[in-house]
Batch of 4 targets.
Target 1
Amino acid sequence: MKYYKDILALIGKTPLVRVNNITKQHKIKAQVYAKMESLNPGYSVKDRIGVSMIDWAEREGVLKKGGTIIEATSGNTGIGLALVAAVRGYKCIFVLTEKASTEKVRYLKGLGADIVVCPAAAKPGTPDHYVATAKRISEETPNSFYPDQYNHPENPAAHYRTTGPEIWEDTEGKITHFVASIGTGGTISGTGRYLKEMNPAIKVIGADPYGSIFKTYKESGFIPEATPYLVEGIGQNLPVGNADLNTIDEIINITDRESFDMARQLGRREGIFCGGSAGTIFAGALKVAKDLDENAIVVFIVCDTGEHYLSKFHSDEWMKEKLLLEPQRISAGLIIETKNSGAPGQLIFVGPTDTIGAALEKMTESGVTQLPVLDDHHSVGSLKESRVLTKLLQNRDLLESPVSEVMDESFPVLDSETNLAEIKKKLQKAPAVLIEDFKRITGIITRSDVLELQK
Ligand SMILES: Cc1ncc(COP(=O)(O)O)c(C=O)c1O
């Protein structure tokens, strides 16, 4: 029989996959390879440290039968630890920040873990911070193990023992550049140290979000004030024990926009469906690779799977809400769906036989200055408050007349697939456009809706 003794036996030995289409488009001569950590059984690079830290705790007698594992995690380390806990019969409590995606939280619960969520804004060192909370819970829980991935030597050691040698062997020692992110620093420090020991000429590059401290801290020794960013699991607001900045030759800052764009492109154009940090790293890898020749071999880490972020940056709605969606992907349908912060309001309209008085009342009630005139879900005209009032000044009796007597021509009607550029073009001339789905008018987009997208 061919089988694995348990799920943990599947951790590691992840393949290298060559990136082809995106590098070609960027006219990159160097070979760029993705180290597919998303193919681990918990779908992230963190499976490696889950098992190594628990092996250590068992060896040292820190974790005994029936014990509880407690950790502060952005989700993936929790998944790695929970896999081991499930196989070996431990309980788990994980402390996350609100930033962790719902998918990761449900995944952890699916693996049997208990979850505590802390405010993302809590400052390090304050009692509400997720690391302080995890520490406190571990102190209060008998027979518990608090791995502390930020400082535990088995974190970088796991990568020194496994990730580094795998990359060295799979590239037959030809790797020239290694690009990774810096969360706890375990991946880049452990893998980087191994690779540099094998060949000191190998360049180790960290890709880090704008807002994180690492670049300034490495280059000047000064710890700047961190600012928020959206990519999960990487960057820090304070130095961490496992981030050995001496192993890193250079740190490149990457914006949220670039990170998510690159992660989305890896899915669409290479079939590598990954998380946002892989996008940060890939963006860094492309910046490094663009100046290299065809002999260069750049390996970057795909830290985790895109499935953890289906409700986040892999959702057009979420990207639009964060003002990060590429304009060519903003369709009329998407604007309508996500108008009013995701709670689509009802389309306000009048019929051609409604009285002008009733139409004006509707405008006042709903705070709008223009209305589409619809007849059986089709657009037959439009009303603009200022024009109606001008006509009323001349003839007040019009208040009782039907809307059809004073209405102007219909607002332009567009298909729900129409893109932002086309919508903007129409809005140069008309104050609003109507959106049609299956031959029924389903929504209206005004100039202010479009301005809202570009705040
Ligand atoms: C999604 C994701 N990417 C990257 C990393 C960074 O890895 P490391 O902690 O080894 O620096 C993490 C760490 O938590 C992560 O969750």
Target 2
Amino acid sequence: MAEQLRIGIVGAAGRGRSFFGGFNAHPEARVHAVCDLNEEGARMVAAENGVERVYLDFDAMLDAGEVDIVVIGTPMPLHAPQAIAALERGVHVLSEVPAAVSLDECRALTQAAKRSAAMYMMAENYCYIRTNVLVRHMARAGLFGEMYFGEGEYIHELKGLNEITKWRRKWQTGINGCTYPTHSLGPLVQWFDQRVVSVCCFGSGHHYRDPRGDEYEQEDSIHMACRMANGGLVNIRLDMLSNRPHNMTYYSLQGTQGCYESPRGHGDRPKVWLQSRHDDPNAWHDLSDFEEEFLPDEWLHPSEEALRSGHWGGDYFVVADFLKAIVEGSQPPIDVHAAMDMTVPGLMSQQSIVEGYAWLDVPDSRGW
Ligand SMILES: NC(=O)c1ccc[n+]([C@@H]2O[C@H](COP(=O)([O-])OP(=O)(O)OC[C@H]3O[C@@H](n4cnc5c(N)ncnc54)[C@H](O)[C@@H]3O)[C@@H](O)[C@H]2O)c1
């Protein structure tokens, strides 16, 4: 292995660009190559960041044999094929979400990750939102008791963006079901520390048309009910079409000994009630009261590099966890099975609608 881990970013003129902050903050790695079909964009990003190599073809970047890690920031249907191609060449993969767009792809990706000596991690950055990290540590410490209900909502009106990044019109709003589940489901899977065993999905009907006059195949507000392995229920709402302000980060958690609600906007603050800490059962308390006690030190006192890399340190810690796993040879926190736990329920939700809102079992990638 080279002295510094050499990174190649594919989709570098789009989302891939946002990974520079995280990698630039880690001296053990450097971005060596960028790849994008958009040559002008790729050259611009390379020049801005002092990157040596520019590729227009992903296989050419892999075949050159000069990168140890690829970051996949391309449109959704390319995630699994590009990840598999890299893993088969022994190149580590940090992939954008979701991990794949079909069950067959999920199976093939899981098998490729199991066969490869290289690491796979899904970059589910909403799991690295500071408040979500704090709730995870509090849940692990048992503060909520037995967890039995949760909610995750990704409400992000992007009809306009569908016309610019046209792949979204097919892979996100062109399919009925929870096509973009991981930002909402990911943190809840981590809090429950349970996988989803079955899903049932339904929607609110169709109320919008695209600029060509075609109805969006996806219903405006999609609801995916998830039965967790411990019997708990998690509701996921995905809404990429309704005319309204965004709220991409709404979450709630209910357990036998406490509950959490994130803000819905308009001045609200992240809040908890915990039976073991609070006398009045009708009074909320600020989640931030628990930072000192439950946030890991690197989150409580983030370094300058972490803060500079974006999202209050979130972008830094995704990369930090991934690099640590590679250097130590340990499993990354969102390894291929965790990625499947966050991705496969969404794929089964699409089938649930096809089968008349049936409850369908969610396959466990650990058996693949
Ligand atoms: N985690 C997050 O918060 C977050 C935010 C935005 C997007 N995303 C994900 O990132 C991915 C990209 O989204 P985006 O909004 O940047 O899309 P985009 O269309 O703006 O960018 C994708 C880039 O990939 C390039 N590309 C397409 N096919 C390619 C190929 N075969 N080889 C090389 N480059 C290719 C395009 O030219 C483009 O520059 C999506 O999967 C999306 O779901 C995640």
Target 3
Amino acid sequence: MSLQMQSSILKEIIVHASETYPEECCGFLIGTEDAKRGIRTVSDAVRAVNAAANSKRTRYTIEPREILKMEQSVHSAGKKILGYYHSHPDHPPVPSEFDRNNAWPGYSYFIISVMNGSPAGMRSWRLSDSGKFIQEELSDGTQL
Ligand SMILES: [Zn+2]
């Protein structure tokens, strides 16, 4: 399993994460999938609104309506929602308990750590059918 993302897309995510710091940013990873080889290629990172009521510093929520709208628009473009990205302000890029409880199997969850406002590491995860997060490989170009 791997996630491929050009550095220009990564930069957009970094900018988003820096803008919302010290709160979490979140968004969609849109693209195509080669299911046989387990390779996902991100073509767009699209910003979403963090709808978490009180605790945007430690969690994110995307409104179901926003997800539905995105699903319809990418589907008509022959793409799909590969997963979601979000930032961890002053925390490592490891899923929280809240992340795990709110994740769906099959999607990629890309987390970027932001320490004191600067990007400080990233990892991508997939939730297994048994409810465990497994790290997935990032393409060589995906580096800070
Ligand atoms: Zn998180």
Target 4
Amino acid sequence: MNTSFSKEFLAEMIEMLQQQKVRLERQLNDLTNKETGSAFPSYGEGEDESAEEVATYDANLQLLDSNQSEMRDIIESESRLAKGTYGICKYCNTPIDEQRLRARPTSSSCVACKKALTQEL
Ligand SMILES: [Zn+2]
């Protein structure tokens, strides 16, 4: 199946997805404690520092969680680019608005379907 998007537009999306990936990888790297390899930071041995470590750890885990789901979206988008189904709404099979894709290259549904879905919730 071939999409109606121009080569230039698709190249732009590939570029955006790659940049997003680099940013996520950098964030992932920042969140990882270099000594332990986990998201648990080490500020020191004191009680205050421990409390701070736990708070940061919680925040880090949340970030990691959203980081991982963003990463999954990017990988999914890349595989759709490879298959030529990128930019097609997964619910109604119509092309997604280019502006929407520019704002969020990992979009997999059109505005109308997204709206319908959100209203169902
Ligand atoms: Zn749709």
